[in-house]
Amino acid sequence: MTTKIERKSFELKAATLEENQIRGAASVTGVMDRGGDVIFPGAWKPCIKSFLANGFVAVGHAWDELPVAMPLEAKEVGNELQTLAEFHSTPEAQAARTVCKERMAKNLAVGLSVGFMIDYDSDQPAYMYFESGKKLLAYAEANGYDMSLFDVKGIKAADYFCRAILKIEELIEYSIVPVPCNQHAGLTEAKSILDAEPIDISKIATERDFDRFLRDAGFSRKHATAIALHGFKNLQRDADETEETPPADDPAPVAATKASELTQRTLALRMDSLRAALPASI
């Protein structure tokens, strides 16, 4: 059996929150994504049982790091792969939950990306290419698919080669990601049982403090550690150089200057990281 790992991303919008769980559509079928693929209705059904037994939820498809959540439910309903997962109690998992919660509260996009495999040697074709979206839709209609589950208008507009994904061999995981590929899915619930107080930025005094702050801001453990090791001393030095000498009996301006400088530079680093993650074609 020849397989290949595929990844498809979806944009999520907030609706409600649920205790320490993330609920929403991890994938949407019948929609043309930015990669020119349409996952057909029914494609997920063969792999759901295995996913619930062995799958996981990650951040950014970081398979070399511990999962942030474990799947509880997965089912294909209409044109959605509806999922429910519970966050782990680790700091990394709760940091991921915090980012989702805060972005959702501001009505900002969050992304989910499914990591799955297709069997390219299957007796029944797992995928097919078409010269245009119109021909893909004609195939779907001729083979008895429910056309109400397809974004007919959007797919018809594709006047280029596209692919129908008919069967998913294995759903390995889905991930929380910053860059969505498809804008039709919806995260509906994310809340934590661990509502610990965030670190006070004015009290960041060590690399360890900075590392924790970066993780709370949504960086992966690997990226937070790298930035803290290589960037903290420079940030601290630059902040010290910009501060004015306060009155001896008033330490507040020092803390305010350091906090402001560190916040601005941390946000700049975060934006640089996100820009680097964007595909060149988007």
User: What is the number of E strands?
Assistant: 11
Number of H/I helices: 7
Strand content: 25-35%
Strands ordered across the widest β-sheet: 1-7-10-4
List its salient traits.
single chain, 282 residues, alpha+beta, 2 domains, 4-stranded mixed β-sheet, 4-stranded antiparallel β-sheet, 11 strands, 34% helix, 26% strand, elongated, disordered C terminus
Quick recap:
The chain is α+β, with helices and mostly antiparallel strands and 282 residues long.
Protein described:
With 282 residues, the chain is of the alpha+beta class. It has two domains: 3-190, no CATH class; 201-277, no CATH class. It is built from seven helices and eleven strands. A four-stranded mixed β-sheet has the order 1-7-10-4. Strand 5 and strand 6 form a beta hairpin. Helix 6 packs across helix 7 (252-277).
Give the helices and strands, then pairings.
Layout: E1 3-12, E2 21-28, E3 37-39, H1 48-54, E4 56-59, E5 69-77, E6 80-87, H2 91-105, E7 110-119, E8 127-130, H3 133-142, H4 152-156, E9 162-165, E10 170-177, E11 187-190, H5 207-216, H6 221-242, H7 252-277
Parallel strand pairs: 3-9, 4-10
Antiparallel strand pairs: 1-7, 2-6, 2-11, 5-6, 7-10, 8-9
Helix pairs in contact: 5-6, 6-7
